[in-house]
Amino acid sequence: MTEAARAPAHDTLIQESWSRCRDYGLTHQSSPRFDPPAVGELSALLESRQALVQTTHQEVLPYYGTILANSNCLIMLADDQGRLLQSWGDQRFIEPRQAAGFVAGASWLERYTGTNAIGTALSCGQAVHIQHDEHFLKANRFMTGSASPIFDEQRRMIAVLDVSSDSYLPPAHTLGMVKMMSQSVENRLLLKLFADQYHLLSFNTSLDNLDSPWAGLVVFDEQGHVVSANRRADNLLGHALTYGAIEQLFDVPLQQLLNQPDGQPFSLRTSGHFRFHARVRRPARPAPIQPRDFRPQATPSTPQEPQLHTLSAGDARMDKAVRQAERLLEKDIPILIQGETGAGKEVFVKALHQASSRANQPFIAVNCAAIPAELVESELFGYEKGAFTGASQKGHVGLIRKAHKGTLFLDEIGDMPLRVQARLLRVLQERCVQPLGSSELHPVDVRLVSATNRPLRQDVDSGQFRADLYYRISGLNLELPPLRERSDKQALFQRLWEQHREPHQRAGISREVLELFQHHPWPGNLRQLSSVLRVALAMADDQAIRAEHLPDDFFLDLPTDTTLQARPEPDDLASQYQACGGNISYLARHLGLSRNTLYKRLREQGVRP
Ligand SMILES: Nc1ncnc2c1ncn2[C@@H]1O[C@H](COP(=O)(O)OP(=O)(O)OP(=O)(O)O)[C@@H](O)[C@H]1O
Hints:
It comes from Ectopseudomonas alcaliphila. Keywords: ATP-binding, Nucleotide-binding, Transcription, Transcription regulation. Residues 280-310 are annotated as: Disordered. GO terms for molecular function: ATP binding; sequence-specific DNA binding. The chain is α+β, with helices and mostly antiparallel strands. It has four domains: 3-192, Beta-Lactamase, CATH 3.30.450.40; 195-281, Beta-Lactamase, CATH 3.30.450; 308-481, P-loop containing nucleotide triphosphate hydrolases (Rossmann fold), CATH 3.40.50; 484-604, Helicase, Ruva Protein, domain 3, CATH 1.10.8.60. 38% of the residues lie in helices and 14% in strands. Strands 2-1-5-4-3 form a five-stranded antiparallel β-sheet, sandwiched between helices. Helix 3 packs across helix 7 (171-194), helix 17 packs across helix 19 (525-540) and helix 23 (584-591) packs across helix 24. The radius of gyration is 30 Å and the shape is globular. The model is unreliable at 1-8, 297-303 and 563-570 (pLDDT under 50). The site of adenosine-5'-triphosphate has 17 residues, from helix 11, helix 17 and helix 19.
């Protein structure tokens, strides 16, 4: 790519990185903080990344030795947290006062060291070249560097490879080289993981470059399932690879691929009719029939966030709330969401953020009730270093500025102290934040959404909440209905069951439980439903959820005779006991007996041992 073609995207990338640095509270004068880990932590870190370091050192760098030997540069390998694992090459340019950044364990995250090749490649997930003056911190402007992330077999970013120097490095050339090196590391890691047990198809545009790091690599099993592939394969095929059958990618029967002589080049067409040269390597020990799933996955810890339009399953009040929020998606009108605890206010706001053009910008949720009253102000507005006794030496950028360009969600806003309410009002009016102890005003652009489960109008009347702030934050007032009043309850029971079940749990919810759910007052709303279903699914395993799988406290809130309404004919103790899922406390309350008397009767009738 020419420099001219690269320039606009590159400029945007630098501007965005600088803006993140400001959000982190850095200034051009800040000193980099490399935060080296303690000795024990460092050896654990190096031990855990040994395979990566060795592969880079022994199998990749030797190919680039001659190119690098003449260029006074240093090659650095950092992990996914920007921590330096190892460096090779020319250390001469590093002056003693910069040495802390070049020892193993030093962190190059943007948050601590500003815009730099390693940290910025990590933040934006792509290869970058950072020239001297593009570093955010003046202290780092002695160097220039290119870095490229390294992804594992599931396309998770695991490391960054960097080439840096204090002298001029030609951007396009250095960037190209570091990309090639990181692709080489990825390829070697793929081969190590799969070559023994899986078939490897390498393909490229000509016979001569079949061995190059720029060859596409697709790993597949005996049944023709694609189990992994390098990023280059996507580029060559012109689309993100699907992890289905290899026959869908290439216009060739599986049997023909399996019968190709090992390592012999042949020509191949994609299903989109591009022609490539290819080679298949057979495994020494084919994998067992059920391969592990190496496909790229969403991080398991990321819960599935519902989308805005799916939040209502047909309830009229909820439909209206979703419709109104959708209309205001891109408008600069603050929204106040009211609703009982657990009714889904935060889930609603996250969905709103995701549906808006700010989805890739920060979503900052602040629970105003959870921050101690005396800290709300400093947490929200930030402070200069040394602004008050106990303030951190670094200062603090504050949550409002962190939300710059994104969404600021002020949860439990009814619990905000009056003094802080006055300052928040000023920020909303002036759109500027003044940190504690600072005379500087920082402009902010935030989408404000607030929520409360307090009767905020009444709090205004009683003087606990400022009327002027109330009108500022409630441009649109949305009320989320409590679960017990929603007409789409049954659909929600099914939906949440579907969200929480494991793939093998297909038996559903029994009729008796659906009826109990229907009559339950659900004081904890969707949060409670979600928790009850998680317990019940764990208890029921692969059976349908029955009353006996429900947690005890579910029955405490149930209107006294609901359990028996759910089952029309139970007149003897055994069926009543079964109908309430064996819940002794509930049944004793219902029959007006003590728990001991009930135990005795159940024993006498042979219902329980
Ligand atoms: N639409 C939904 N689909 C699935 N689960 C939901 C949904 N809405 C809420 N939940 C579940 O309920 C929990 C609580 O939701 P949320 O935090 O949005 O409630 P809230 O109204 O903000 O509560 P609080 O007022 O106590 O902060 C979520 O963590 C999730 O488990």
